[in-house]
């Protein structure tokens, strides 16, 4: 069976003739070796997003929290399933914060919950620092990147590999080579990122092998 580049992307996202499930753990690698990270589409099994909306008991409690939270990045980067952590402030309510973290699986998130530092930090926060914590967990179904180059106007709309997100975001404009702004890891731990090393959660296929048998 012949597979075009378009078919490879759509199959990986469950939109092509093969009907691949978004959690099938399949990576479609084009036969050409000069592909960028954004052109290698990986679907990881059960990628997890955890969102926590937080209110602190006082401004002083938040300032103390930032001291404890700043060391979080030193513990996250050693976890194989960690992908992303960002901290957001609501523009209309400066006392309402949102923590977003991404993990390769529910098990990876559970490993973080069992981490010694996380246990002590959570116990400290629960001892009066936090007034409210609303927690929601989600599983990944798709990824997409839209970019418009401010220099040449080149428009990009493509699926991309979440496990290689930092490499994808650092790619230059394919037309004029403009460098898009990318936030680096912050010492506050309010922005921490890591690309995944492919493991058992993502099976690799070459286009030459044919997709239909592998996806059944």
Task: Describe the protein in words.
By secondary structure, the protein is of the alpha+beta class. It has helices spanning 5-12, 59-69, 72-76, 106-113, 116-129, 165-169, 212-215, and strands at residues 26-29, 41-42, 48-56, 82-90, 93-103, 130-139, 145-148, 155-158, 191-193, 203-206. It is built from 7 helices and 10 strands. The chain has a 5-stranded antiparallel beta sheet with strand order 6-3-5-4-9. The protein is globular, with a radius of gyration of 20 Å.
Structural class: alpha+beta
For the biggest β-sheet, the strand order reads 6-3-5-4-9
Estimated share of beta-strand residues: 25-35%
Oligomer: single chain
Molecular shape: globular
Mean pLDDT: 78
Total tally of structural domains: 2
Number of helices: 7
Count of strand segments: 10
Specify the biggest β-sheet: 5 strands, antiparallel
Rounded radius of gyration (Å): 20 Å
Spell out the helices and strands N to C.
HEEEHHEEHHEEEHEEH
End-to-end span in angstroms? 15 Å
Secondary structure elements and their pairing?
Blueprint lengths: L4 H8 L13 E4 L11 E2 L5 E9 L2 H11 L2 H5 L5 E9 L2 E11 L2 H8 L2 H14 E10 L5 E4 L6 E4 L6 H5 L21 E3 L9 E4 L5 H4 L1
In short:
By secondary structure, this protein is an alpha+beta fold. It has helices at residues 5-12, 59-69, 72-76, 106-113, 116-129, 165-169, 212-215; strands at residues 26-29, 41-42, 48-56, 82-90, 93-103, 130-139, 145-148, 155-158, 191-193, 203-206.
């Amino acid at each position: 069976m012949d597979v075009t580049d378009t078919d490879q992307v759509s199959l990986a996202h469950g939109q092509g003739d093969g009907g691949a499930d978004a959690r099938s753990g399949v990576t479609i690698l084009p036969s050409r070796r000069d592909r960028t990270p954004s052109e290698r589409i990986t679907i990881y099994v059960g990628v997890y997003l955890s969102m926590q909306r937080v209110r602190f008991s006082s401004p002083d409690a938040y300032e103390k929290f930032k001291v404890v939270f700043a060391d979080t990045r030193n513990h996250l980067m050693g976890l194989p399933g960690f992908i992303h952590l960002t901290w957001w402030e609501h523009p209309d309510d400066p006392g309402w914060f949102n923590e977003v973290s991404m993990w390769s699986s529910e098990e990876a998130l559970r490993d973080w919950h069992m981490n010694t530092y996380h246990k002590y930090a959570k116990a400290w926060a629960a001892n009066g620092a936090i007034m409210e914590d609303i927690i929601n967990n989600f599983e990944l179904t798709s990824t997409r990147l839209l970019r418009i180059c401010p220099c040449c106007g080149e428009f990009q709309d493509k699926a991309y590999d979440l496990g290689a997100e930092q490499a994808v975001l650092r790619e230059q404009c394919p037309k004029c080579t403009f460098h898009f702004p990318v936030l680096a890891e912050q010492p506050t731990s309010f922005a921490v990122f890591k690309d995944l090393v492919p493991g058992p959660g993502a099976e690799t296929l070459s286009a030459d092998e044919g997709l239909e048998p592998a996806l059944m």
